Amino acid sequence: MVTLILATIMITALAGLLIKWILEAQNREARITWREYAIGMAVSPIAAVLVAWVGWTMARDSKLKFMEYWNGWEVAAVKEYVECTRDGPCRYEYDCDPYIVMVAYDCMCTTDKNGYTSCSTCYRPETRYHSCPYVDREYNFYADTTLGRYTIATNVFPENPQAHQWRAGTPIPQNVISSAGTGEPPFWVAVRARCEANRPGPVTARRSYVNYILASEHTLMKESSGDILDYQSRKLLPMLFRTVQSFYRADKVYFVGWLPQDGRAWQEALEYLNANLGSQMQGDLHLVVVKDEAVSRNPDRYVFALKAHWQDKSIYGSDALSKNGIVVLVGTADGATVSWSRAFTGMPLGNEKFIVMMRDGLKGLPLTAATLLGPPASRKDAKGIHYPPDGAYGPIQRVLWGADNPATKFKRVSMSGDDGQGGFLYLKNEIRPSTGQMWTIFIFTLFICCGAWLWAATHHDPSERT
What is the Cα–Cα distance from 251 to 120, expressed in whole angstroms? Predict the structure, then answer.
């Protein structure tokens, strides 16, 4: 940043001299006196430092922002009643009840000898319309969750909308009914059923956070692997999921070389596990199931390649594997039994006990969603929402929750070090704006600084003008 500021000051000084010479050579009324030049050169460095510092900070902070999954639970299904009135709050309306408004306009205009035009004000009647709703009520449907409120549908007509005409005898066009929809949305009905039964469903969302490690271009803490291209050529490296569908659902189970018949059950089971993991420990689990003989011969090589691939900003940008990400990999030779297992997290340090315990910790178990992830179910009691309903934790959950050894319990590592583990705040000093951002800062700073010469040229300084 120092180089940028010095370059700005030097160019500003030369630009001031050039403008001063041009104005004097052309004998312009606008001039820059030496006193004005001195004032400009006194102000410009201050402006350069302030503007460059603000621009540098904004550019650096923009590189710190990454996205991660937050996980939680449904809380309640909310149905909002909206009473419709003329010119009221409802969305679906039509023109009705015309009335007359006198509108002013210019008339009888004349132009005098000096070219000045004057007009009189006249009035003419214009027809305006009120807005009448088609139905006497509309409904809004929401799902309240531990991550906030989600809008499921708005301005929906009641069942049999023709029986709810706001003005009797005014039928509702079918295209309007189709556009608005009628009755309770099926998704919302399912949410209500789960919440009323104290069996809330899982929720996930994408949220921003700060990651100094991914933002830094120089730190040695990021994984690298020369095997990525080899695995990609054999289609063994899945793309990291980074989207949300159906309002707040996301797939986080990856099948490589093997596809189960109950793939949906695997995704749902992990969604429920993540809901509890996210609400209690702010974690987010991804499960990778691999059936490949070459991978099974050297699982660690594959694990390093996958982690480096998922943390590659050139591919995923701000969606690279997040710091709260937990990845469990299981291998299988026959599609029925786990032959090996590994794990890693989105951070280079922390949760080492968990990673060690997961090393072949699932070997020999049946390769089923129920065994590894548990059932897609939940329960809500006076203490909150829990998974699984009867506390029957599976092997992955037992390690994550530290059920057998508290040292394996997952802990979200703090970037700033407020968890007493040191943190990675020092990496912030490594982060630099991109080349494009640097040029933008430089040009904007130079533009602001050269504004001093615009002031000087238009400022009247009779004491030093000849």
Answer: 69
